[in-house]
């Protein structure tokens, strides 16, 4: 598999097989991704990877926390900007509707939609859960570098026959996770990632989000 194939094949995998990833495989994956770009070689990311009972403990914690507060915990780092503007809001809504349509869940079936969304907090039954930790003192550049590291992991996962799903929804539980992982005072959970072997037969994994045409996002000058 070359890089172009990995990019074209990568999706947000939301259904996984009951097939484990070994400790050795996970170590190799993480170590290889360390070659991701990092301005000034700061390598601002830290990773907590979970499987088995450690993963289940976080799932149980999320269920208990969200049962008390379904909207999640307050944060000064929201997943989306307030009053999201066009065309971004339309894109966000469109991919959501595409997903529920693929799953056969109509717009008026709110309980079914909420039930599906809750699967985020089970990592869509993936065998491995990864959390990305960043120091709050880092700037925008270091957040971008952490994103480059995450994308590198996602592409390396494709090479290995795995699937991934970036899960910013875990930002709804930053305070709880900070306590659970006993993070340093200045550290925070940025994002989660579900990792495992994709269930190719599940309809949700047939979803491919639309992307804007080149003319909508790029200007090519001087060519």
Features of the shown structure:
223 residues; alpha+beta; NADH Oxidase; four-stranded antiparallel β-sheet; 8 helices; 13% strand
Describe the model.
41% of the residues lie in helices and 13% in strands. It is built from eight helices and four strands; from the N terminus they run ααβαααβαβαβα. A four-stranded antiparallel sheet has the order 1-2-4-3, sandwiched between helices. It is globular and about 55 Å long. The mean pLDDT is 96.
CATH architectural type: 3-Layer(aba) Sandwich
Strand content: 5-15%
The average pLDDT value, as a whole number, equals 96
**What's the name of the CATH homologous superfamily?**
NADH Oxidase
- Compressed to H and E, one letter per element, the order equals HHEHHHEHEHEH
Give a count of the beta strands, DSSP E runs of length 2 or more.
4
The domain count comes to 1
Q: Give the uncertain stretches in residue-range form.
A: none
CATH class: Alpha Beta
By CATH, the topology is: NADH Oxidase
User: What's the arrangement of strands in the largest beta sheet?
Assistant: 1-2-4-3
Specify the structural class: alpha+beta
Q: C-alpha Rg, in Å?
A: 18 Å
Please give the largest β-sheet. 4 strands, antiparallel
Provide a count of the helices: 8
Helix content: 40-55%
Care to give the gist of this entry?
The protein has helices spanning 3-9, 23-33, 52-68, 88-103, 110-118, 140-159, 174-180, 214-217; strands spanning 46-50, 128-135, 163-167, 187-196.
